[in-house]
Amino acid sequence: MAPKLVLATNNAGKLREFRELLAGCGFELVTPAALGVDFDVEETGMTFEQNARLKAVAAARLCGLPALADDSGLEIDYLGGRPGIFSARYAGPGRTDPDISEERQRELVLAEMRGVADELRGARFRCAIAIATPEGDVETAAGVFEGRIGHEPQGENGFGYDPIFVVPELGLTSAELAPDEKNARSHRGQAAARAVERLRVLAREISSD
Predict the structure, then answer these.
(1) Which CATH number do you get for residue 124?
(2) Among 2, 1, 3, 34, which residue's Cα sits nearest to residue 133?
(3) Using an 8 Å Cβ cutoff, are 175 and 87 in contact?
(4) Do residues 56 and 132 lie in contact, with contact meaning Cβ atoms separated by under 8 Å?
(5) Are residues 69 and 130 in contact, defined by beta-carbon separation less than 8 angstroms?
(6) Beta-bridge partner residues of 4
């Protein structure tokens, strides 16, 4: 039986992506909720990597299992790098419905970018992944996905800012890409591919103990 790896997230869209991205990593993927653990970590870090570390270490400690967490977000050149590490909270506090929050966040970004020329709409997604063990060991991986901000939401795939993030060479948003293509190009896909290499080693180490 494969050892368990805790995915330190309550985001359903992110969970779906990680189940695809981490296929073949050697672990059975579980969530804190599936283990009966209430997981809610305050993201006090100043970088994506710091926040990923915070979440992975907390999940590993609470669940007593290896854990993987990511922190990712959208950086927009015209907005000086915003929303950045606040991407998931850009709609403000008190918004608990993920669908409403994500839609509102997209609306806020589009409102701030209204009238901005295409050549000034450069943006990128960044992702940092942290893998932590209950003993406190932590390793990280990162990925970057370059693009620009569109003028209106397009596409039904993905989540978060995907419908307004355009891949210029394709003329499609991230939400219009087939899952395989998105995973091959995306910030999370790049970081996960690097993380899978470490997870395979860790799974073998655990299985041999």
Answers:
(1) 3.90.950.10
(2) 3
(3) no
(4) yes
(5) yes
(6) 28
Known catalytic residues are: 71
Would you call 59 helix, strand, or coil by DSSP? helix
If one counts the domains in the chain, the total is 1
Residue 173's identity, in one-letter code, is T
In one-letter notation, the amino acid at residue 140 is T
Distance CA 185, CA 180 (A): 9
Per residue in 78-136, pLDDT (tens digit) is 999 999 999 988 876 544 455 558 889 999 999 999 999 999 999 999 999 999 999 99
pLDDT per position as a tens digit, 183-206: 889 999 999 999 999 999 999 998
CA dist., res. 101 & res. 83, Å (int): 14
Token duo for residue 67: 């854990």
Structural domain containing residue 41: 4-208
